[in-house]
Amino acid sequence: MGELIVKGGYVFDPANGVDGERADVMISGGKVVEEINERGAKVIDARGKIVMPGGVDVHSHIAGSKINIGRLLRPEDHRKDVVPRTKYTRAGVGYSCPSTFVAGYRYAQMGYTTVMEAAMPPLGARHVHEELNDTPIFDKAAFTLFGNNYFILKYVKEGDMGKLKAFIAWLLRATRGYAIKIVNPGGVENWKWGRNVGGLDDLVYNFEVSPRQIITSLSRANEELGLPHTIHLHCNNLGIPGNFETTIDTMDAVKDVKPKDGRKATVHVVHVQFNALDGDNWMNVKSGASKVAKYVNANPHVTLDMGQAIFTDTTTMTGDGPWQFRLHNLTGNKWVNSDVEMEAGAGVVPYTFREDNPANAVQWAIGLELALHIHDPWRVYMTTDHPNGGPFTFYPKVIAWLMSRKARTDTMLEINKAVMRRTTLANAYREYTFGEIATVTRAATARALGLKQKGHLGPGADGDVSVYDVDPTAWRPSMYEHLEKALRSAAYTIKGGEVVVKDGEVMATPLGTTYWADAKIPEDVETELMKDLEEEFRNHYTVSLRNYPVEDAYLPTQQPVAAEGRGRW
Amino acid sequence: MAVYRDVVCPFCGCLCDDIEVTVEGNEIVGTRNACAISRSKFMNHSANKIESPTVDGKAVALMEAVDAAAEVLVLANRPLVYGLSSTECEAIGRAVELAELTGGVVDNTSSVCHGPTILALQQVGESKTTLGEVKNRADLIIFWGSNPTEAHLRHIIRYSVMPKGLYTPEGRKSRYVVAVDIRETRMARVADQFLKIEPGKDFELLLALRAVVRGAKLQAEEVAGVPREEIDGLARRMKGAKMGIIFFGLGLTQSDGKHMNVDAAVGLVAELNHHTKFLLTPMRGHYNVAGANTVTTWQTGYPYAVDFARGYPRYNPGEYTAVDLLAKGEADAAIIVASDPGATFPADAVRNMARIPVVTLDQKVTPTTMLSKIVIPVATVGVEAEGTAYRMDGVPLRMKKVVEPHEGVLPDAKVLKMIVDRVRTLKEVD
């Protein structure tokens, strides 16, 4: 890996307070450095262009059993987006459930160099890592599902914080997971009897614990363990009109948890578009985004991502089995349910967001309202919850909506008028700046994830850079279509100091690094935990404890990120 | 003497992971916990082995066989890559790459077993689970066109009928077991209730059950040879179960109606979820046939029958499936990995296969190796080589290596990588 200099571009590096100034970015040995010998260095001419750190996606479904069920379920989705083999790249398919290779290429073509897989069932962890190893270019990590795990429910019920923390540390290591993912806590366990929970204080059958207890215990354990990311939470009642109240209650439930040193957040709430619905049913659904935004503006312990809806045919997939059954019944579309013993579940249902559908128009507005009404871009992140709100390939369109009121208005004129009556979007005049876009797609997501070498261009940062052919000094919001085009196909994407994309074409396909969270457990606590695990695995699992943890063979390029714990055991 | 514990069995889709294998020197001398078939696979793994790579029947060095194989594939207009269900996932990925590189077709054995299951899934979906949920919760187990007592010997012991689980503390006594089949199999005798149905009438019976579950009254005295009272009784039992599951086999997928039978079963299960928790799971045969579908899907978007003639993947079972390509005389070369179509395919397909150059990677002498131009012996996954396999319910496990292969014998993945590299070189010269 040689030396490289990205010369003369307008640099947006919000983590280091750089806001569009012309500067050079120098990379040596795969890292950003302060100085290099310009002679012999490869020069990338970025004059008249935007330079940002490589994109960091905080929440996407790209690897593992769920997305693969989506691929399997939808041959009709693949046929409209076929990808032939080239000299540098493998063949595949795209659209809402892209094949692994194509997912890697397309993220890189948009300038993204780090992507989080948002839901990994522990028993399927090998599957996730096998797919990630076939997904080239970007660095990655996967969030392990915890919210309905038998051991979590058991230790929460027993009030045993020590074992709870030990189990979290053990399972993250066993699955090579990066964060605690919680999906409809309690609801997925009840779904194994064909039921659900209706709110924070309903009880889980046989355990008699509530979603509130699960969430607060996991948040507390997370912060005491000092994991790099907060809990990553898919709330109860997703997709049910009126659920904005559950969402605010959920946020409020972890208000008093003491965060890890150096951060304020104790929870990241995911794809809030699906969780900020007001109204009583899908006929009169309206936006609850302003109320959620108001709460978030007043409470620094919450971060969230948009889960922006896109008007297109897509494939929904979540660990929320009961919701997917509900969606199957709402739409009549084909439905896959997939339960995982002792741990988790999932469902997959194709869905089309329609411009003429009033509820879909409201959903479209909610994502944008959240991003526009929440003042601090360090706490609200751009996602589509790929592919639930829409494929990640629509990110440039979302950015255009954020940066251009005209882009929003042009869309509003095309869609159901419910958007005018049941949302506040028409009154939102705010337009994101390039610096704010760099924040919600890179700097803030990297910071929330605790990936210190990502999302910025200071010395020591990874040499991940995206260059877009947009002149920010001449750009006006009316030019949003040009912006979309430039963002879809980066002038350059540089990954670890190597040019992987040039003029939107993939030039190289290195394999990225897999990060996982490494928390230490005192030996005596671990011994006690293992006794429990031995017995429970023997009696209730169908794989042996020794065949459960993911072997190093599945992690050709791994990097543990150390937790910074506090407190007693 | 070494004892390997928690070994994963490389035979059927149950992928039992509690086998103990005893090795002396480099010989397997004993097994524990294994069923009769598994034990036989471990104990006899060195019998009937292919001694050396051959080209046109003559023993050659490995590299020579690899070169010859690459040449055959590069010269072909429509090469077929087939098999893959009894090897590990890296090899499956390499096989897909080989098909892509040569503009050929990749298919796996699911096209002749649970292919229709996947077609039904693509049409209507599926409500499934890992086997531990069945062990822990299911109080109603239905085997439909499936006979685990002969084909998946430990399924009923480890997963479905006998085991004591979290909410099934009394094991067998906690469950009601139903067998639906066209004859009284051994499974039928193990079950609490046996429904003998007329051959080819599965679809009718499934629809009748669904209608009753929905609240309809059957007018007919009997459907598929099953009296109305029994249908009403089973429907009632299904709705009243705490958690129920249908395990189905080739009796459903490969009899008249094929994917429509599975479609009807999926519909019945979806209907039942309005009343209680109900699931279904296919009884996959080969130990990694689920993996063959899984890997092919993540690499191409499609589970089997994938054609790369246009440079991008296309999918059409019935056209790009191995039996059809061979029977129509479309394939002009083939590479067979971990499968024996020479013994199992219809006569038309085998006849044409004997006319084209065939490359076979296998451990043992089979009818397929006997009609192959090029034969390359490979290490047995799960005995002599590691790798991933996916259980019938999608749970991935790491296969173990307990003995060394013969000197110079490599695993499928390594040999396929060598062929891929050689093909790439030959193509660049062109």
Percent in strands of chain B: 15-25%
Task: Name the average pLDDT of chain B.
Answer: 97
Uncertain parts of chain B: none
Based on CA atoms alone, the radius of gyration of chain B comes out at 23 Å
Straight-line distance between termini of chain B: 53 Å
Give the oligomeric state: heterodimer
- State the CATH architecture of the largest domain in chain B: 3-Layer(aba) Sandwich
Helix content of chain B: 25-40%
Strand order of the largest sheet of chain B: 5-4-20-19-18-6-7-16-17
Number of strands of chain B: 22
CATH topology of the domain at 54-449 in chain A: TIM Barrel
Uncertain regions spanning at least 5 consecutive residues of chain A? none
Instruction: Tell me, briefly, the overall form of chain B.
Output: globular
Number of domains of chain B: 2
Q: How would you characterize the overall build of this protein?
A:
The complex is a heterodimer of chains A (569) and B (430). Chain A has 569 residues and is of the alpha/beta class. Chain A has a domain at 54-449: Metal-dependent hydrolases (TIM Barrel). In chain A, strands 1, 2, 3, 4, 5, 21, 22, 23 and 24 form a nine-stranded mixed β-sheet that branches. An eight-stranded parallel β-sheet of chain A has the order 6-9-10-11-12-13-16-20. In chain A, helix 5 (150-158) packs antiparallel against helix 6 (161-175) and helix 6 crosses helix 18 (523-540). The two termini of chain A are 44 Å apart. Chain B contains 18 helices and 22 strands. In chain B, the strands form five sheets. Chain B has a nine-stranded mixed β-sheet, covered by helices on one side. In chain B, strands 11-10-9-14-15 form a five-stranded parallel β-sheet. A three-stranded antiparallel β-sheet of chain B has the order 1-2-3. The longest helix of chain B is centred in the C-terminal third of the chain and has 18 residues, at 412-429. Classes of the chains: A alpha/beta (569), B alpha/beta (430). Chains A and B meet through helix 1, strand 7, strand 8, helix 4 and strand 18 of A and helix 3, helix 4, strand 8, helix 5 and strand 15 of B. Strand 18 (335-340) of chain A pairs parallel with strand 8 of chain B, so a sheet runs across the interface.
